[in-house]
Response regulatory domain-containing protein (Xanthomonas graminis pv. arrhenatheri LMG 727), 83 residues
Amino acid sequence: MLRAMSAPAAPCVLVVEDESAIADTVLYALRSEGYQVRHCLLGREALAQARAGGIDVVVLDVGLPDRAASRYAANCAASARCR
């Protein structure tokens, strides 16, 4: 009996960007390449999604309105689920 092999799941990219024109372009490009994409406008939302798991890589705006990108990155790096 032959078993159908399922394709591996596409990597999931979390895009953290508050400028809609930039976000739309990045999201379109990533989806066109076959990535699963999640989008957040604020650092606190992104941190919650990253902690929940299922994120393979984060594309992070360095000028977020609610927290500096470096602070977000430090919090994410400290979380075991973000590794």
The mean pLDDT is 83. The radius of gyration is 15 Å. Residues 20-32 form the longest helix (13 residues).
